[in-house]
Amino acid sequence: DALQQACRVAKETLLGPQAPEAYTIHLPGSGSRLIGGGRQVELTAEEVRSCVLDGFFPHCDLQTRAAAQQAGFQEFGLPFASDAAMTRHLAAFLWDHRHAGRDDQEIAALGDRPAARPDWLLFNGGVMTSPRLCDRVVQVVGKWFAGQDGCDEQWQPRVLAGERLDLAVAVGAAYFGQVRRGAGVEIEAKLACSYYLQTSCDPPTAICIVPGSASPGEKFSLSELKLELAVGQPVQFPIVYSSTRLSDRVGQRVVIDEEHFSHLPPIRTVIEVARTRRQQSLPVYVEVELSQIGTLQIYCHACDSEHRWKLEFDVRGSTQTDHVGGEAVGNQAGILDDRSEQAARQVLLEVFSAEGKTKPARVMRVLADALGMPKSAWPPHLLRAMWATLIELQDGRRLSAAHEARWLNLLGYCLRPGYGLAADDWRVAQTWRLVHGKLAFPAISSRNESLILWRRIAGGFTAGQQLTVYQQIAGPLRSVLDPTRRAKGGSGVSPHELTELLRLVGALELLPAEEKTQLGNGLLNLLPLSKWSSSQAAMLWTLGRLGSRVPAYGPLNGVLDVAVVTRWLRALAASSLTDANLGLALMLCGRRVGDRYRDVSPETRELILDKLQRLGAPQHMQDLVQHGGQLQSEEASQILGEALPLGLTLR
């Protein structure tokens, strides 16, 4: 670290204004030879300039492209680039976007090189505070165009003035915040990406559905382009995008190539139709909208009826380098036409609007009747549509404590498990913003339902949000789990409330290992106490979740150390408990995964298997401990405390 910091200071000094001819780096020794064991190296300004300028800002031609594979000079300020030469990336950017924002007349009138020529350069970032680096970029760009296609021999791009380049992004973010509040001038940004729906594989061709000139919120209709939609069978909808083909028009057919196109995770699903219709395909046309939150919404309209199916893709990964998207596996359960969404919406209006006449206690039954299916059969896309309606009707929870309790309960049910569909992270963030610390009624029912809500969507929380939730309930939990505080009495926590607190904690897989270990140790001490016997099932369930060898959604580095879990397993195997959740806890903590860092020892495994046999545990549960394997749906329901929505599975 000391060497890195010293090199950084040397670089900034030798590349800055009024730089000295040389700079000496001093590295102290260690131990008794702190002074005598030190070293020093002298760097000359010429060495640093040659290294940085030729390594990161070399002279190159406009047609030169960045290396596709990492080789040679690498990684000094571009950790995600395969080629560290910024000028080669700049050449590719200018050339690939030479026609962006131009109409056909301009494209025909301009040659390729004049079209790529920039008028101004705007420097950004602390690295560009060095005048030598800025001058090199101006020189390189000038050589690309000077004296060619009618350009003056002495031409160079002009430079826009900027102050504190190291703070430019922060200043821009602050200004954008002012604009969002009505102050300042908003500059409208286009997508900088075109989106395409792939329609064939041989050859790979696609149709442009959103052009690069579009703005978020803009809608596009491809009504003149008739497509065939396969129904009643598993299908996939591949979406590709391009940041270079920005002039393609909506409806234009293109051939997909790896150089200009990238793939988004496809949606795999089944398009459901009424049982009376036996077609294998339907003629449809497509309408598309890119939402403000970064989802691509595609509506497939039937040409011969009023049916419409909505597909939703998370496309933030195409424009946000720090966003990691996943496949929307929840859509595998199938997609109903939007008449089901309208039926559910009408029921919710009857309950949570000011004019509503349906009592909150009856909402689930009325929804099941209106949709013609039990709640266990509601597909995830329908649940998310109901979530959106509930958010729209959030004022309805303030009608009474009963309304708030039912609203919270249904909100969590519709968003569980907090992941699995496009933009679920955004939905979880919205729910957090609207509910956290903002209950309308002090009723116990509201408090308990908020705990259930957080448990149901915990899989979509960040580590910080999970820690915040835990810190807010840690006090009541410790008053029960801590022997000293428990002996003083007066915890104020009822067995029912303790059960919900424990089930919530068990769902927080991103908690620090130290907190999980303390919780597990406290639960082992609490299990034998008869006063809390009614919460025994919840204690065992939570122990299993805390020590699970395979997290439900969290990363593997969050799995507790095997030595800690082994102590828990030996204590549970030696106990006289007979609760059914004991078998679940033993299986979760002792499940074989084929990883020596997570698997328990053979001796501990034999203890677990012996206890499971004496408990009469299902054979598959014993197989998971002895051989490993995948969870069955019943086991997944036990782990989460309820069934997952259709199409979503646990690891």
Overall pLDDT metric: 85
In whole angstroms, the N-to-C terminal distance is: 39 Å
Separate helix tally: 23
Task: Tell how many strands the DSSP assignment holds.
Answer: 15
Radius of gyration: 31 Å
How many domains?
A: 3
Main beta sheet strand tally, sense and closure: 5 strands, antiparallel
Overall structural class, as computed from helix and strand content, comes to alpha+beta
**Beta-strand proportion:** 5-15%
Shape: globular
Give a short synopsis of this structure.
The protein is an alpha+beta fold. It contains 23 helices and 15 strands. It folds into three domains: 158 residues, no CATH class; 134 residues, Sandwich (Substrate Binding Domain Of DNAk, Chain A, domain 1), CATH 2.60.34; 182 residues, no CATH class.
Describe the structure.
With 651 residues, the protein is an alpha+beta fold. The chain has three domains: 2-159, no CATH class; 194-327, Substrate Binding Domain Of DNAk, Chain A, domain 1, CATH 2.60.34; 470-651, no CATH class. 42% of the residues lie in helices and 13% in strands. It has 23 helices and 15 strands. Strands 10-6-5-9-11 form a five-stranded antiparallel sheet, with no helix packed on it. α17 (513-526) packs antiparallel against α18 and α18 packs parallel to α20. The protein is globular, with a radius of gyration of 31 Å. The two termini are 39 Å apart.
List the helices and strands and how they pair.
Elements: H1 2-15, E1 22-27, E2 39-44, H2 45-56, H3 86-96, H4 104-109, H5 112-116, E3 120-121, H6 131-145, E4 158-159, H7 168-180, E5 194-201, E6 204-210, E7 219-230, E8 234-237, E9 239-242, E10 253-255, E11 262-263, E12 267-270, E13 281-290, E14 295-302, E15 308-314, H8 338-352, H9 363-371, H10 380-392, H11 401-415, H12 424-435, H13 444-457, H14 463-481, H15 483-488, H16 495-507, H17 513-526, H18 536-547, H19 562-574, H20 580-590, H21 602-615, H22 619-626, H23 633-640
Parallel strand pairs: 3-4
Antiparallel strand pairs: 1-2, 5-6, 5-9, 6-10, 7-13, 8-12, 9-11, 13-14, 14-15
Helix pairs in contact: 8-9, 8-10, 10-11, 11-13, 13-16, 14-16, 16-18, 17-18, 17-19, 18-20, 19-20, 19-21, 20-21, 20-22, 21-22
